[in-house]
Amino acid sequence: MTDNTAPVDAGARERALYPDTSFIVQAPAGSGKTGLLTQRYLRLLARVESPEEIIAITFTRKAAGEMRERILNALASARSSRQPEDPHEALTWALAGEALEQDERLDWQLLDNPSRLRIQTIDSLCQSLARQTPLLSRFGAMPGVTEDARPYYLEAAQAVLDELEAGDELADAIAQLLRHRDNRMDDLQSLIAAMLARRDQWLRLVAPHAIDDGDPLERRMRIEEVLTRLVEEGLEKIETAMPEVAREMLPDLAAFAAQHVKADSPVRACLDMERLPGSSTADLPLWQCISGLLLTKGNKAKWRSPGGINKSLGFPAESSGGSTEEKHLFRDRKQAMQQLLESMQGHAELEKALANLSFLPTAVYTDEEWQLLDDLFRLLLRSVLQLQLVFSQRGEVDFIEMALSADEALGEVDDPSDLMLRLDYRISHLLVDEFQDTSQNQYRLFRKLVAGWEQGDGRTLFLVGDPMQSIYRFREAEVGLFLQAWEGRLGDVPLERLVLSVNFRSQRGIIDWVNHAFPQIMPLHSDKVHGAVEYTRSDAYKPALAGPAVEVHALLDTDEVSEAEHVLRIIDEAEAECPDGSIAILLRSKAHVADVVRLLKQQHHQFQAVEIDRLSQRPVVRDLLSLSCALLHAADRISWLAILRAPWCGLALEDLHALAGGDLDATIFDLVNDPACIARLSDDGAARLQRVLPVLSTAMSQRGRKDLRSWIEGAWIALGGPACVAEGMDLEDAEVFLQLLESIDSGSSVVSPELLNDKAAELFALPDAHASGRLQIMTMHKAKGLEFDTVILPGLGKSPRSDDPQLLYWMLRTGQSGEPELVFGPIKSAREKENRTAEFIKQLDREKSQYEYGRLLYVAATRARKRLHLLGEVKTSTETGDIREPGASTLLYQFWPVISDTFMERANTADTGDRAADDGEDSDDVPVNHLRRLQSGWTCPAPPRGVAGMEEAAQECDFDLEFDWAGESARLVGTVVHRILEQLGSQEMANATELERFSAIGRRMLMQEGLPAEQLDAAAGRIDDALAGILQDQRGRWILATEHKDAQCEYALTRRVGDQVRHMIIDRTFIDANDDRWIIDYKTGSHTGGGMDEFLDREQERYRQQLDDYAAAFSRLEGRPIRLGLYFPLLNGWREWRYKE
């Protein structure tokens, strides 16, 4: 086909530009949907009175930017250039010309004012809606939007759990949930935080149950109705798929088998069966009995082999009959059952439906399950309310909150808000790209935006997407919503269906292979309830190329390194064939990339890999992470043992056991400072420990006195960290981690291990700035929308990691009516094997995931223009050499019906020398793990100037104090009091009851910091004294009052002093009624000597320069007078002075 030949779907493309009709368009991979959207947008521009009447919604900023650029380029081209020869480009040029005529007639000046083009992401649309009605949307001043709200989720979760000690009305529910999870408070906090991160899915449906004051039995019955429907739907599938011959034979055979099994066999339930059971929940046990007869047991239940019918299933051998008549009966019944099984072997849908019976839930909850669900509903709703308080205090929200607020601002379809009515007047045309990735909440938003639209009123809806490319379930995309709209309507708007079929991207060889393979991978029929999408064939526009378009590389018994070496050979061949061609290595998971990246770097291949090469498993980053956690948290034994095992110390395992194995309660830092413990070490171990101990001791003495990065970096350098790296790029990785420390250092609170580990897990190696982009590595999800000459898909035989447990399991599905239905299942207890309802929900999720795995492969395969390479590894039996079927969660399992023959041929032709491993008897090579470590007598060279050496820094920060907070306990008291004062300064002044809650929080924080139990009561008492002093002290209440103008807690400033940059954290600052700027520093010491005034005067002189520096930084920002103060909450002490430049 030539470039000027009209595509076979030209009629559908032309129809899509009709400006008065609403459409839903299925646009497969490579079909040019962005170009079609651009053309329709231009056609609509020529007809509207204002460009703002058209709204185009995309799901990524990149897609929005690309569409905006295409429209502006088309307008510019139509103004300045001649009509192109290419038919598609000529049509775009003509449509742009019509739009320009309207632009000039109405004086829009779009090329000078491109912001009038309303092309935006769904997130930005929600922000704009919330911005227009801040009161309706719960916001006063418009908050900022954070892309990482996990710290806020954890904070809200902790605040809810604090209510257990405060005796709140929710305390009993929290206590019950804690018992359910073995009293693991941290576990429950993380589970609540994870639920908050997905609250947009369950909040609207959970809230009515949590706040409903009606009959609790009625609430329970409403939820159980969904369970009942699920059971009935499962049984209806069996009834529909059951062939007529089975309907006739099964009742008699099942009843016969029930007469001849043991009394305790479940088959006995079929004893009086005269006809097949129906589809009510009461029929479930009978169907399970039939399933037991027809299918094998286990997770991969399949049709029984006819030869497997025996007396244990109720079919005795002919010879066991007592009479000739009975012998004939036994023979006939057994043969009939075998014949029935023979006839059933091809009925895959029935096989699957029967197998799923083992996962169906019971139709009602037990009383214990319901009580747990009821507790969860109330706990989750309270968590959401607490999260909103956190957002309000922090002045920023997450994208979910913005979307929920936009939804609330619009009102309901039958009770629209003023905003919705105004939008109904202003919006004439709505275009939605990637509609297959719509979530339930986004679908609900679209329905509201088009509520009241009628056919022929001049307003149109244009939905474009490809259900075969719906791969974002982890972002709550629900492909069933596309299938629902495909039935011809979204809300009240009728939709005409259009299908594009031409693929302009890939050569015919790839298209032919895809058309052959994916009907075998994807389900035969679409199902909106279960998320199944059937395959729609594509038509090739480009001709076939010489040579194989698709190659399957069957790997047997290999490892990750061997597969990575195979990938490199493919890259070399592709570069030799086409030196300027683009190559992409597409992976299912970032966890599958390590060996490929390492080999590429070793062979000096330049490549681009943005956010793909994780650093959390690099030794240098692991060691830095352990060092950070150990120094931040003295009680973290695992991290302390890790830094003693790290290369800069290198203690042998025997020495670690001798040091810590006998005392499981003491901190490792206490043990390494105990001469008796050191005496138990080997001579080498003792020498190594003596070298690093002064560095670690000095580092511990500097806690809280330096910024986080300088503190950890200085300790790492002094320990010899840079000398332990294996190669130069390790130093780059270390720099990335140190930059992380700098970014999360608030200066006012201790960084939690959870936050540090979460952030470290998100670190990636820096991209190669010199790479041309011809070779790229990315995930399959990231590749969506891109194309490459050669695509390599390695790791198809690898399984993804299992999902983390959830506090509440739910399945939000599109019911037969098109309305969302939510199924609930509580998390199992720590001692419970499973919760049947939760297991059913997880099975439904696995089923949907299996369908999505096939779609993910389709997306990956259709990125290729010229060549596609598939690499997968399977294991073979060491006894027979037979190939073992890939695991069900692997992508290779999806491909198996298509490419299994290739693996069989490989197994038949490969001799033992071709395999990476044989029986293992002939190999003398035993892998040995050598401990990499510095030599015992290694000494650290002097660090470069500007990097704080540990001894020098200790001299700078060490000083003798007269009062009783020079120890570790007092330092932690100071940290905790500072954090509580920060909280008090951002809310109305607490009363006595609230201070009790803060007291409980303070005690828990001390415990989390690892403060020894014998010091806990005294330290907690100091915190209580400080809080009580603030509550009773008029000056303290004045300092923390929220009425002040521009009041801030833990205010961060950065100032350049000479050639150095100084970071400052101001405890409290505000502007008083006299328009004076106050800068106040808290001091949590308690004076034990005589002469209080003398003590306070000395403290004033001691900290005068520090506060003057703060004031000097502020004076550059504003011109008002500045007053400085030191506040001692334990002493009711106060010193103040005016700043003079």
What does this entry look like structurally?
- The longest helix has 28 residues, at 367-394.
- The protein is an alpha/beta fold.
- It has a six-stranded parallel β-sheet with strand order 3-2-8-9-1-12, with helices on both faces. Strands 15-21-18-16-17 form a five-stranded parallel β-sheet. A five-stranded mixed β-sheet has the order 22-23-24-25-26.
Residue share in β-strands:
5-15%
What's the end-to-end separation, in Å? 80 Å
Profile the largest sheet.
6 strands, parallel
What integer value in Å does the Rg equal?
A: 35 Å
Q: Uncertain spans, ≥5 residues at pLDDT below 50? A: 916-929, 943-966
Estimated structural class: alpha/beta
Helical stretch tally: 40
Average pLDDT, all residues: 83
Biggest sheet: strand arrangement: 3-2-8-9-1-12
Q: What is the strand tally? A: 26
CA-based shape:
globular
The residue fraction in helices comes out at 40-55%
